Structures are given as structure tokens and as C-alpha cells.
Amino acid sequence: MDGENNSIEECQKALGYFFKKSELLKSALSHASGVDSRQASNERLEFLGDSILGLICCEFLYHRFPDLQEGEMTKIKSVVVSRPTCAKISGQLNLGAFMVLGRGVPYEIGSIPANILADVFEAILGAMYLDGGWDIVRDFALRHLSPVIEEVACSDLKNNAKSLLQQIVQREFGTTPQYVLVDEKGPDHSKCFMMAVTIKGQSYNGEWAKNKKDAEQSAALSALTKIQGPVADAPQG
User: Fold this and answer.
1) Which sequence spans correspond to the domains of the chain?
2) Domain 2-154 fold
3) 70 catalytic, yes or no?
4) What are residue 81's phi and psi, to 5 degrees?
5) Which end of the chain is more exposed for a tag (fewer CB within 10 A), N or C?
6) Pick the catalytic residue: 46, 50, 119, 216?
7) pLDDT digits (tens, 9 = 90+) for 129-182
8) Count helices and strands in the chain by DSSP H and E runs
């Protein structure tokens, strides 16, 4: 029991927040594989935290970038509030070291699946909201998320879409995106091209542009908005 209490104490130090109800933190750190029932796992808190994270990001974008249109904010949110981002923040906080994991799940810090790390970060947000309220969880999330939002939003997202997509696909799926010419139309002097992204054989929506380079950027941006599910939902080879 002392070991468990020490782990909770160390986790709170890492978070920079001390829970009034420590059972919420214990639940947030409990993967379904390590507890007797799914009700005792962090799945419900993860569900809550996912929505909280999305709202925090939307609120920040709305006030921080008043000139951005809805579509632009949606694309930025899709890149920022994603499994890779949540897993990265979870890793920075070393949350995997405090988790309750069952048999079949790697315990080594470098080998815990990214989707589990992403889920525990969102579960922590849900627990923190229930324990401390909106201001507490928003301040905590933005402390880790705002630099990512600024980086994505202040860069030319459209011109960097291919680079961002390649980074995510290489890290999460272990491959590189491929670009395929789907269609073209118009006379030779004024052609338009439709390019689509394929990842491990799965194709994403094609996008039109006046040259192949711009069409590839648009196709990459479209694919970025789709790649948000758990690693288990990734394209299978």
C-alpha cells in the first residue's frame, strides 16, 4: 500500500497538481487490463477528458487567433488534439511509470503503446476536471498544449501539411505516405489534378489543384484531419 501511495504522490508531483480526491487519480491511471472490471478502469475518464481537451483547444484557438476561419481552426485542432500529441505529452510527464497495467501490456517505459499513453493523458484531464474544476484543467492542459498549438497555427499549415503528415505517419505507422494521381481534367495549357494520399494501402480523399504539388499539399491536409483514432484504428498492412 505504501508503494501505491508513493506512486500517486510522485505522479502528482510530475503533474504539478495534488488531488483532493486521490481515488480519481488512481482511476485515471488504471488501464482496463490491470483492474477487475471496466468500470474500475480509466475508460470513462478518458471519454470525458477527450471532450474537455477538444473544448480547451477550440476556446484557445477562438480567442488567440480571431482572424482564423472555422475551417482553418478545425484543421489545426485535428493536428493538435491527436493521439500522437497526447502520447507525446504523456511521455514528457512520464505517466507510463505510474500506470496500473495488466498482463500482456509492456511495462517498460519505452514500449507502452502510444494509444495507451494518449488515453491516460486524457483520463488525467477528466479526473482533474472533476477534482478541481474547469480553470484548473484548462491551465494544466494549456501549459503543455499551447506551445504545440502556436507551432502549428503560426506555421503555414497548408504548406507544411506534407511534412507534418510524414512525421506522424512514420512515427505512428512505421511507413511513409504515398501520393497518387487520381484524375486530371482540362486542356493541356490549363490542367487541374486530383491527388490522393495512401497509407499502407488505405486511400484518403483526393483533392484538386492547378498543379500536382498544391494538390498533394491539400491531400495531405485532408488526411491529417482523418488520422485521429487509436493506433489500433491505423491502416493495416
Assistant:
1) 2-154, 162-233
2) Ribonuclease iii, N-terminal Endonuclease Domain; Chain A (1.10.1520)
3) no
4) -90, 80
5) N
6) 50
7) 999 999 999 999 999 999 988 888 876 666 678 887 888 888 778 899 999 999
8) 9, 4
